[in-house]
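tl;dr need the bound structure. longer version: we got a ligand (adenosine-5'-diphosphate) that a collaborator sent over and nobodys looked at where it sits. i said id run it. heres the input, straight from their email, havent touched it
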Amino acid sequence: MAREKIISNESGGVEDEQFNMALRPQTLADCIGTGDLLEKLKISIAAARGRNEPMEHVLLHGPPGLGKTTLAYVIAHEMGSTIRVSSGPALTRPSDLIGILTNLEARDVLFIDEIHRLSPAVEEYIYPAMEDYKVDFIVDSGMHSRTINLPLKPFTLIGATTRSGMLSPPLRTRFGITHHLDFWSAEDLLLRCRMTAGMLKMEYDESALEMLARRARGTPRIANRLLRRCRDYAQVKGDGRLTGSSVTAALELEGIDVLGLDDLDRRFLAKMIEIYQGGPVGIEAMAATLGEETDTLVDVVEPYLLQTGLLARTRRGRLATMKAYQHLGINPPATREETPLFDEPE
Ligand code: ADP
């Protein structure tokens, strides 16, 4: 069963992407949260501008929907430059990458989403481009083959990935700034909800937004999406104003519980308990049991369950914690309490 769109951190089609674009802040001053990264970026951008140079290459990693693309656009805007957007899977041949690189102007930003999915053949060309602003490529073959050395304008590469562990070390070390984006706090999500509600010209009770922020899985993209669903509900079933009871009813209809878990999250934990006695169990076995892609479970489901302490990762596999049993209202087996729930971490 495909993951419900509402909770999925991935893009939900053209309409959703347009909505996302419209809600993206453009300047650093309008950005919310993300720890000390904003301050670091502010300094790097001011320094680069002062020297009239491009900013250092930036690697952003973390679960989808937390703001990697937004930051890339903000950096380009603050640098007064143009952004070119591509992704690891889209750059299938070296010529795709070379075409983009040779068209960049000085201090432009190249944003590569899912950079861990670049093919090794394409990645080869990224190293000299990042380091020395040049690409070397071979034309013709055999006796007539020669290397063409193409200088590039100095640019900034911003890479985004949900799996920094899958990045090759030579690529990872070429980024000057590396930052992990964490799930947002309920306070930051509340600020985001107020911002979105304001942009959508919605009327709301503060308590309604607080509830929404607590159930948005620490993810601004989900907060935005839920807000739209709640707005529809309030408009059709009430007088349009977002109240605590309309948010409760709308989220219930969407299958989102008090911790912000959706059907797939709960099925993940429930199957782990039912079929694998709470684990430890390997992620591939879980994917087969649920009929889901391993990548979806690793990128979208697991990080939040780990963050909320419902799941533990150990060398022997994944384990449902006591909190998971409690949340699902399942009695843990008697032997369970004697078994240490957290053995050595992975
Ligand atoms: P990612 O690229 O990590 O998947 P996005 O950059 O698309 O995530 O962010 C999703 C949404 O979250 C954006 O449309 C925007 O509304 C909101 N958002 C992300 N980062 C910020 C931020 N720093 N301040 C305010 N809103 C943000």
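gonna send this back to them w/ a short note. The two ends are 29 Å apart (CA to CA).
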